[in-house]
């Protein structure tokens, strides 16, 4: 997929792996993860430093998640996103989504080679809110 539509992805997604999801309510990952969970998405934390976030078991990698993942939503520094992209491809996810302020040519290349839709520098929460309040 070359030019995926973020609104379509948000509309069709059911399961979202949030890479870097933290228990710290001050962190954007927690704020966005909480919001997505409140909206009815299945939110699965991926963070090797956490055992449980938002009442869900946390995994070290997306590949370890025992169910299909629609979107891998990444809250990591840009230099760590290629590793997340490779993990998303191995896990068979449909979309790699880098949150606002995060861009990576290498992650884009890996996602493309793995046939994943790719979104960068965009907030999933804001995209969802835009659907609710056009």
UniProtKB/TrEMBL annotation:
Domain of life from the UniProt record: Bacteria
Gene3D superfamilies, A to Z: NAD(P)-binding Rossmann-like Domain
Domain CoA-binding: 9-102
Pfam families with a match to the protein in the record: CoA_binding_2
InterPro entries: CoA-bd, NAD(P)-bd_dom_sf
Organism: uncultured Rubrobacteraceae bacterium
Protein name in UniProt: CoA-binding domain-containing protein
SMART domains, A to Z: CoA_binding
């Amino acid at each position: 997929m070359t030019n995926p539509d973020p609104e379509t992805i948000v509309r069709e997604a059911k399961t979202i792996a949030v890479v870097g999801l933290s228990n710290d309510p001050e962190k954007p990952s927690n704020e966005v993860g909480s919001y997505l969970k409140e909206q009815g998405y299945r939110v699965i934390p991926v963070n090797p430093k956490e055992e449980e976030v938002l009442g869900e078991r946390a995994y070290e990698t997306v590949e370890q998640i025992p169910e299909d993942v629609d979107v891998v939503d990444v809250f990591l520094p840009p230099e760590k996103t290629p590793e997340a992209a490779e993990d998303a491809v191995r896990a068979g996810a449909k979309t790699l989504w880098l949150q606002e302020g995060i861009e990576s040519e290498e992650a884009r290349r890996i996602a493309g080679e793995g046939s994943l839709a790719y979104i960068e520098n965009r907030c999933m929460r804001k995209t969802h809110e835009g659907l609710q309040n056009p």
